[in-house]
Amino acid sequence: MGANDKQVAGDHYKANGVQYWDYCVQAETPNLEFNAGKYLLRWRKKGGVSDLEKSIHYLEKRIESRNRYIGSVRGGAYIPSLFEKMIRDNAVTEAETLIINKILHWQSVSELDVVIFDIQELIDSEKGK
């Protein structure tokens, strides 16, 4: 039995196809970006707005680290066909796809600032319901 054959506590990561962590391993996604994307991917299935806030928190740490010249200088590699399949297999919305793409494949810190703004809009929209 492999790691993809089980999940501890829930089924919010179970995809019939490409799982998020499989994509991130292939793309060599840095840790902070991996976690920020993970929380964004699962927020509707598990933690709600709290998961969106956690995603922002990880992005704030990446920005803080880059401003101190520590850590990754960019996100992971972009593997188009695998990314698209992972998004489809995990039933991610179009808006969330754009955000996850920016998180995983950023090239400048200013892109991460935009991502935080985008996630905050999701939070505001959800709280306004």
Description:
With 129 residues, the protein is mostly helical. It has one domain (17-127). Helix content is 62%, strand content 0%. The chain contains six helices and no strands. The protein has helices at residues 20-27, 31-42, 49-67, 80-89, 94-105, 109-127. It is globular, with a radius of gyration of 14 Å. The N and C termini lie far apart (42 Å). The model has no long low-confidence stretch (mean pLDDT 91).
Q: What is the mean predicted local confidence, pLDDT?
A: 91
Q: How many domains would you count in the coordinates?
A: 1
Largest sheet composition: none
Please bin the fraction of helical residues. 55-70%
Rg, nearest Å: 14 Å
Helix count? 6
Q: Shape from CA axes?
A: globular
The strand count comes to 0
Segments where pLDDT lies below 50 for 5+ residues?
none
Q: End-to-end span in angstroms?
A: 42 Å
Order of helices and strands: HHHHHH
Oligomer status: single chain
Strand content: under 5%
SS-derived structural category:
mainly alpha
Q: What are its keywords?
A:
single chain; 129 residues; mainly alpha; 6 helices; 62% helix; 0% strand; globular
Please write out the topology.
Blueprint: H1 20-27, H2 31-42, H3 49-67, H4 80-89, H5 94-105, H6 109-127
Concise summary:
Helix content is 62%, strand content 0%. By secondary structure, it is an all-alpha fold.
